[in-house]
């Protein structure tokens, strides 16, 4: 799978409380969660995000509470993937569980700028900054995890699993 989009860049320690504030946790509507995604850190995010865009952040993206609403809000907003130096482990797992592609790549997280156009090949882990021409290498997911993401998350993967 290859995705391409405009970068929305953030720093260290982007907390799940700013990805989707607690005041919106009473809904499970993907559309409503998308409307409030990132609003406490970037008021114009929802107005500027386009389907296929990419979030790039520094260290510890998705820290804070374990709310699954955070990766759901990101995915529902149209973001095709998140690249960060590192992810909070629970956010990492929740993202895979709902089928949101994420990659850890410190070099890309440091070099890519807000507004750059980036292309990501998940099979190879190659990240290309199409604006600057720079290329970066992330560790691609093992096939079983990529399969979960390709099927839209863990539940879909289990539903589609062939029984012996």
From TrEMBL:
<dbReference type="GO" id="GO:0003861">
    <property type="term" value="F:3-isopropylmalate dehydratase activity"/>
</dbReference>
<comment type="pathway">
    <text>Amino-acid biosynthesis; L-leucine biosynthesis; L-leucine from 3-methyl-2-oxobutanoate: step 2/4.</text>
</comment>
<comment type="function">
    <text>Catalyzes the isomerization between 2-isopropylmalate and 3-isopropylmalate, via the formation of 2-isopropylmaleate.</text>
</comment>
<keyword id="KW-0028">Amino-acid biosynthesis</keyword>
<dbReference type="Pfam" id="PF00694">
    <property type="entry name" value="Aconitase_C"/>
</dbReference>
<dbReference type="InterPro" id="IPR011827">
    <property type="entry name" value="LeuD_type2/HacB/DmdB"/>
</dbReference>
<dbReference type="InterPro" id="IPR011824">
    <property type="entry name" value="LeuD/DmdB_bac"/>
</dbReference>
<dbReference type="InterPro" id="IPR050075">
    <property type="entry name" value="LeuD"/>
</dbReference>
<comment type="similarity">
    <text>Belongs to the LeuD family. LeuD type 2 subfamily.</text>
</comment>
<protein>
    <recommendedName>
        <fullName>3-isopropylmalate dehydratase small subunit</fullName>
        <ecNumber>4.2.1.33</ecNumber>
    </recommendedName>
</protein>
<feature type="domain" description="Aconitase A/isopropylmalate dehydratase small subunit swivel">
    <location>
        <begin position="50"/>
        <end position="102"/>
    </location>
</feature>
<keyword id="KW-0432">Leucine biosynthesis</keyword>
<dbReference type="InterPro" id="IPR015928">
    <property type="entry name" value="Aconitase/3IPM_dehydase_swvl"/>
</dbReference>
<dbReference type="GO" id="GO:0009098">
    <property type="term" value="P:L-leucine biosynthetic process"/>
</dbReference>
<dbReference type="InterPro" id="IPR000573">
    <property type="entry name" value="AconitaseA/IPMdHydase_ssu_swvl"/>
</dbReference>
<dbReference type="InterPro" id="IPR033940">
    <property type="entry name" value="IPMI_Swivel"/>
</dbReference>
<keyword id="KW-0100">Branched-chain amino acid biosynthesis</keyword>
<keyword id="KW-0456">Lyase</keyword>
<comment type="subunit">
    <text>Heterodimer of LeuC and LeuD.</text>
</comment>
């Amino acid at each position: 799978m290859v995705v391409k989009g405009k970068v929305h860049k953030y720093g260290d320690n982007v907390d799940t409380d700013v990805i989707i504030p607690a005041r919106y946790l009473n809904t499970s509507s993907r559309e409503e969660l998308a409307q409030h995604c990132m609003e406490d850190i970037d008021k114009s995010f929802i107005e500027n995000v386009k389907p296929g865009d990419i979030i790039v952040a520094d260290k510890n993206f998705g820290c804070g509470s374990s709310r699954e609403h955070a990766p759901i809000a990101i995915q529902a907003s149209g973001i095709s993937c998140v690249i960060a130096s590192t992810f909070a482990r629970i956010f990492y797992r929740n993202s895979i569980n709902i089928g949101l592609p994420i990659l850890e790549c410190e070099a890309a997280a440091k070099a890519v700028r807000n507004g750059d156009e980036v292309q990501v090949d998940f099979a190879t882990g190659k990240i290309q900054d199409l604006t600057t021409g720079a290329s970066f290498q992330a560790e691609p997911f093992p096939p079983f995890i990529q399969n979960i993401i390709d099927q839209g998350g863990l539940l879909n993967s289990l539903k589609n699993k062939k029984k012996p």
